[in-house]
TrEMBL record:
Substrate binds at residue 278. The record marks 220 as: Important for catalytic activity. Belongs to the metallo-dependent hydrolases superfamily. Adenosine and AMP deaminases family. Adenine deaminase type 2 subfamily. This is Adenine deaminase. Its EC number is 3.5.4.2. Keywords: Hydrolase, Metal-binding, Nucleotide metabolism, Zinc. The keyword Signal does not apply.
């Protein structure tokens, strides 16, 4: 229909996607075979059937297990190249990709293997397909601040390949303030700060992310709807939210997409964006997120255009880069 064609036709930026969450079962099996690693599932279909989650932790358990198939630099290259090609098919012309180094270094894969594979695919995709991308390193918040500090240290030789540092994994019980000291260093070293907050955790965690970590952008942030003063603050400080509708649906953050406060954020002048999070697990890339959200919330073409424009305004592209897009 009409809305679908409109969504497909507009150029978009994706600002919230975990590279490990773009791992499609077909590619997972291919890599398991070539790396002689046993998967606990017998077929692609069995894997897809296992993708029923009751909360964030259910998902994370499967997501971390699947990542164990990634071993060589080529594996990280192929994973990233596959995502970038798929994103471009949705008219994503710029993307800011998260990676979780600790998921890999904890199993003996070197930081350099991970980042070299990912960034080589990003460069090739720009040359071959014209898609631009940046890389955001995330700390796993269920691990200690000391582990995050070690990870930051390993990243310093690659600093020019990393635009920002974020915080992901199990939110409840791991408030942003747990990482206060390491994020001071993150910013001193010249990285932007972002953080997942207000997904399963409360609005208070969004306050901590913006005030203690000085996050320039909040990943998810949907629980901000519970706090009108926070909403004003996000608006005044121009702190964008990267909302992930199908993720929120699949992880039961909301019972149905109709509950998502996207339209309220838009109407309150908050720079809200739509993103896919872990598209291989949550049943849709970016256009599917736009379409299902637009249908559920009755968004107009004008709303959709604002969401797409917000995605560029909320991105870390620089002024000279920006002229290419706007
Ligand atoms: C994630 Cl949906 C979500 N939330 C927190 N951490 C994550 N890592 C990958 N996907
Ligand atoms: Zn996420």
């Amino acid at each position: 229909e009409n809305l679908k064609r409109y969504i497909e036709s507009i150029p978009k930026a994706e600002l919230h996607v975990h590279i490990e969450g773009t791992f499609e079962p077909e590619l997972m099996f291919e890599m398991a075979t070539r790396n002689s690693i046993a998967l606990r599932y017998g077929s692609v279909e069995e894997v897809r059937n296992a993708y029923r989650f009751n909360n964030l932790q259910d998902f994370l358990d499967i997501y971390y297990a699947a990542a164990s198939v990634l071993v060589h630099e080529e594996d990280f290259y192929d994973l990233t190249a596959s995502y970038l090609r798929r994103a471009l098919a949705d008219n994503v012309i710029h993307t800011e990709i998260f990676f979780d180094p600790q998921t890999h270094t904890a199993r003996g894969i070197s930081f350099s293997t991970v980042i070299n594979g990912i960034t080589r695919a990003m460069e090739d995709a720009r040359k071959k397909w014209g898609i631009s991308s940046k890389l955001i390193m995330c700390f796993l918040r269920h691990l200690s601040e000391a582990s995050a500090s070690e990870t930051l240290q390993s990243a310093l030789p690659y600093r020019e390949k990393i635009i920002a540092v974020g915080l992901d994994s199990s939110e409840k019980g791991h408030p942003p303030g747990k990482f206060f000291n390491v994020f001071n260093r993150v910013r001193e070293e010249g990285f932007f700060a972002v953080a997942h907050a207000g997904e399963e955790g409360p609005a208070e965690y969004v306050w901590e992310a913006i005030d203690l970590l000085e996050a320039e952008r909040i990943d998810h942030g949907v629980r901000s709807i519970d706090d009108p003063i926070l909403m004003e603050e996000l608006c005044d400080r121009e702190i964008p939210l990267t909302v992930c509708p199908l993720s929120n649906l699949k992880l039961k953050v909301v019972k149905k997409l109709e509950e998502l406060p996207v339209k309220i954020f838009l109407d309150n002048g908050i720079r809200v964006t739509l993103n896919s999070d872990d598209p291989a697990y949550f049943g849709g890339y970016i256009n599917e997120n736009y379409l299902q959200t637009a249908e559920a919330l009755g968004l107009s073409k004008n709303d959709i255009f604002t969401l797409a424009r917000n995605s560029f305004m909320a991105s870390f592209i620089t002024e000279p880069e920006r002229s290419r897009f706007l």
